[in-house]
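Hi X.,

You mentioned you wanted examples for the new student's onboarding notes, showing what a folding record looks like when two proteins sit in one file. Here is a clean example. The first protein comes first, with its sequence line followed by its structure tokens.
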Amino acid sequence: MSITPLYAGLLAILFLVLSIRVIQMRTNVSLGDGGDPNLLRRIRGHANFAEYVPLILLMMAMLEYGGMRGWLLHVIGATLLVARVLHGIALSFTTKWKFGRFYGTLLTFIVLLLSALLCIWQGLKTLV
């Protein structure tokens, strides 16, 4: 396996950036958002990343381990990276960048569905 670690590493750097953005605003708020809408946006950008990325990376690793073609894994990984950068910028760095939020979400869902279907196909293939 050599493709999934590339995207896991790149996405981990993005996760670190999103984490730092939350920490930077936690001067007087140790839990929650303290009613600050900007802190809430950063928290949600960070949390949303944590909700989707690990499962997709896990599916990528399973697909890679199962022999999925490298080009397809790169398409999945690169699309996920672009999706999460768009979404992360939209939530953590801006207040109203609808393009980034919409297309970041859309691309994430496409990658999630594609990865899920490929995992199902790969699993069924072993039954035959």
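Then the second protein repeats the pattern, sequence line and then tokens:
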Amino acid sequence: MSKVQRPLSPHLQVYKPQLTSAMSIMHRMTGLFLSLGLLIFVYWLFAVAKSLHVADEIIGFVDTPLGCTFLYLWVFAFCYHLCNGIRHLFWDVGKGFSIDSVYRSGYVVLIVASLLTVMLYLLSQ
């Protein structure tokens, strides 16, 4: 029996990037980044319980510009993932599916996540 030749589904190379697809990919990436950050945080907690010297080294890294950058990227990832998750909750109840609403809520998520990150940065100073 020969195989039936079925049409192939269009791949990502066929579609133009859109705000919705970029935000979907970013939501997944921020979830992964948050998971990795959580592993580092749990490692730090174990280090605190075991030896304050190791915990001080990790805190020393966070005080460097590179560590600070990672920390605030992690904070932005948290804020973005939270805001986009709330957006998805609205979609789960059937609200905001029009094209205008999807794009408007997408921009709101980006703006609110950025403002929350800046606000948290200013509060930490």
